[in-house]
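Why run this: before we spend reagent on co-expression, it is cheaper to look at a predicted model of the complex and decide which construct boundaries make sense. The entries below are exactly what would go into the expression plan.
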Amino acid sequence: MRGNYINRFRWLRNLPLRRALGVLAVGTLLMSAHQAYAADTTYTGEFNTLLRMGKDAGKRNLYPVYEYLRLQTNTTLKDGSDVSFQFGGWGRLDLADKSSSQVTDGDVQYALLSYQGAKNNLVINLGRQFVAEGVATELLDGLYLRQDLKAGFGAAAYVGKPVMTTVQEKTVDTVYGARLSHTMPAYYAIGASVLKSDRGSERYREEAGIDVWARPITDLDLTGRTSYNSITSGWMEHAYALSYAPLESLKLSVDLANINYRHYFHNMTMSAFSLKNGIINPDENMVSVGGSVAYNLTKNLTVTADFKNYAYNIIGESNYYGGKVSYRLPDSLLAGAGFYRMDGATSRLRYNELRAYVSKMLGKTDLTADFITLMYDKSVAGVKNSYIVTGAASHAFGKKVKVGADIEYSRTPDFDNQLRGILKLSYLFDTTP
Amino acid sequence: MLSILYACANNTSIARKHPMEVSGMPNCAECHNEQWKLLNHQAPDFFKKHGRFAGSNQTSCTTCHTRSFCSDCHTRKDELKPSLKHSGSPQRNFPHRADYMTQHKIDGRINPASCTKCHGRQNNARCIACHR
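The model came back. C-alpha cells follow.
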C-alpha cells in the first residue's frame, strides 16, 4: 500500500524540472545579490486547486485533482529597472481510476529570471519561456533579449532548446532567431524576423518573415504577417486583417489568409500535423477570405455579423457565417448569444452552431450558465444534435480566497448523457503595498 | 557591445505595472488616445490580432497580464481546457469550448495551422494518444 503511494510520487523525479530548478537556484542567488541595490521587493503567488469528478466513456471513475501554481517575485532597483523570477506549472494526481496512462503527471510551463530595464524597453529573460517574435511562437529553455534602438528601430534575439512534451524522434538541438523592427508609434510598426533550428547536421527549420501593423489614417488599421520557408523554398503563410471604424459605434473588418501545407507543415513532428503519417496532405492549400461588421447599438449592446469563405485545393470550399449579440454591464452582467452556419463540401463540415451564455455578478458571488449546441446535417456516431450545458458558481472570500463549483451535462457523439463536476479553490497572495 | 549601447533609443520603458488596476476585458480607448487605444480588448477582431501585438512587444502585455495569462492557452502540455479553468468568463474567446473531442476533427480540417500557435510543432503527448 505504502509502496503504491510512493510510486504515485515517482513522477517528481521524472519531471522536466531540473533545468527549471537550475534557473530557480541561479535566480534566487541573483535576487539575493540584488537586494543590496533594491528599492523594494514584492512576492506574488496563486494556488489553484481543481478536483474533477465524473466518468469517462469506459465508465471508469475519474477524480483527478490538479494544482496550478504561479509564483513571482519582483525587485525594483533604484534606477527603476526590475528583476523578477517567474514560475508557473501544474501537477495532477488521480484519486480514483487513471485518467491517462499515468496516475500522476505535471509540467513546468515557465520558469525564468527576467530583467526589465528602466530605459529602452530592455528585456533579458533566462529560462523556460514562451517567445513570440515575428515568425517565432516557441516555448524554449533559453535566453531572450530585446531592446529599443535609436530612430525608431528595435531588436530582439533568442536562442534555446525547444520544449518537447514527448520525444518520438531525434530532438532538435537548438532554435535561434531574431527580429528587427521599425516603429513610428502613431503610424506603423514593421518587423523582419528569421528563425533557424538544427537537428544534428540536418537543416530542420529555416523561416523568415515580415510582420506589420499600420494605421495610414485614423480609424483604419492593418495587421498581418508573411512567412517563408527557405528549406522548401515556398511561402508558408500570409495572414492580414484590415479594420475600419467609420463611426465610433461601427467597426468593419476584412481578413485574408493563405496557408500552403507543404511549406507550413514541413518537418512538423507533432503527430497530428506531420506530413509523414497521411493526416495532412502536403498538396493542400487553403485560402480564406472573411469579413465582419460590428455595431454598438448602445454602449453595452453589440451586434456582430461574420462571414468567412475557405477555399482548398483538394477538399473544396466552405462558408462559415452567422451573427452574435453581446451585452455587458461592467462588474454586474455579461450575456451573449450567437448562431453560425458551417457550410462545407464534406458532411463533417455541415452543421449549425448555437451558443448562449449569461454571467451575473451578485456582490462577491458569480453565477454563470453556458449552453452550446451543434446540429449536424448528417448524424455523427448516431447523434444529430450534440449539446453541452454548463453551470458555474463561485464566491470570493475577501481578495485572496475564492471557491467555486461547475457542473456540466453533455450529449455528444463521444459521450452520451455525461455529467461532470469540478470543485475549485484559489488562493492569492501579494505583498505589493 | 558599446556600439549597441550607443545605439539605444534612450527612451523610458513601458511601465512594468499598469498604474490603475484593470479588470475584465478593457476598452483601452476609454483612457488612451495614442497607439494604446488599439488594444481595445472588446473589439471583435482583437482576438485575431492579439498575437501580432504580443509578437512586437510583449512588455505591452505584461503591464497588465502575468505570464500565466499566456500559458493558459499557449502551452505545449496541459490537460484542462482554458474554458474549463475559467468557466466564469464565458465572454472570452477561448478555443475548445463544448464537445471538442468531436469538434477538433472539424477544426483540424478547416485550418490545422491555427492549432500550432498554441500547441506548437513538436511532439505533443495529447495528440500522440490517438494520432500515432
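Chain B touches chain A through 79 residues (CB under 8 Å). Chain B is about 40% helix and 0% strand. Bring this page to Monday's planning discussion.
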